[in-house]
Design brief:
The protein is α+β, with helices and mostly antiparallel strands. Among the domains are: 41 residues; 123 residues, Helix hairpin bin (Helix Hairpins); 76 residues, Beta Barrel (conserved putative lor/sdh protein from methanococcus maripaludis s2 fold), CATH 2.40.420.20. The protein has a 6-stranded antiparallel β-barrel with strand order 4-11-14-13-12-15. It has a 4-stranded antiparallel beta sheet with strand order 3-16-21-20, with no helix packed on it. Strands 8-7-5-10 form a 4-stranded antiparallel beta sheet. Helix 3 runs antiparallel to helix 4. The two termini are 78 Å apart.
Amino acid sequence: MPEHDEGMSDARESQPSNEPAHHAPEEPTVVLDPDRKLGRGFVIGLSVVSLVLAVFIAVGIRSRVHAEANLTRATQQDAIQTVDVINPNSGAKALEITLPANTQAYIDTPIYARTNGYLKHWYADIGARVREGQVLADIETPELDQQVEQAQSDLATAQANLQIAQITAERWKKLLAKNAVSKQEADQATSDFTARQSALSSAQANLRRLQQLQGFEKIYAPFDGVITARNVDIGALIQAGDSNSPRAELFHMAATDKLRLYVPVPEVNANSVHNGEKIIVTSDAVPNEKFTGVVVRNSDAIDMTSRTLNVEVDVANAEHRLLPGQYAFVHLPLPPSSASMTLPSNTLLFRAEGLRVGVVRDGHVQLTPVTIGHDYGATVEITSGLTPQDQVILNPSDSLAQGQPVQLDKGERE
């Protein structure tokens, strides 16, 4: 290296100077020797810098590739629908259906007059509770009284005629025995006696008939109950009537210590009705109170018009909390089914091919057909199509398709 520097100095000194002496000297010119070798430190530094730069570039490229992969994976995951699932509950709960019913008095009877006359007096008004045999009203029957007197006179006449006919017949029999009269005359006397007996019997029957009508002058309560209607007043003309003449109805009575409820039970639930079974009865007119009724009988036939079974339920009503004609509800229990399951109603899909539910299997949707038993409102009974281990999708979208990939909600996976 020194030899090289000295050579460069001699070269500069041997060159003549043509410029004036007062000019500033020129900057020295650096001449590189191509044969001169670089130092080891410089090469090592350059290598380190290159290596660091390569590492940074590689890390940057790898981070970018990893970020793009994560973004692609996240995009694909976001494209897969997330669903909530539920497992069916084994065993359907016991069901209770509520059916409307009309309450009726155990006995409900209109009371008519059986004789003609005028109302003399009445003793019970609406709402009055009466006992069996209690007098409700008196009817004055002047014409009937005269007919009874006439019948009594006719009976006395018939008795007198019978007596003389009997004496005559016996007399003619004695004369016939002595051949004092002909047999024809004796037979006529005997026939007359027989006719007089029939006339007496007729008179007696007529008198009894009129006396029976006379007994209807008093109106009696036929059973223990309450008067629900009074349609006559004192002095009103009373005519013997029946159900074909509604204006002739004097009183209306009802026995309310026990009530009848007639319930139309749908055909599908008809087999759940059993005579003697106790059931709960409620009424909006008596809130927060339950009554116990007993199924006493049913029609044992489905009505062709309504497709229902007519069932009679009797309810004890000693405190008269329920009133005849009141609207009531009968709570009919239905037996639970051990072979069925229950699902929320919001799992059902109504498709053209039938009822379906979405089941998640191996991360994909399978639209499974199911059969519904009873509808409990918020839940339904599933009688076939599922197992307790199936994961059924809650609130499935209408666009849910067979084989569609889905993923479970994070809470469901945990």
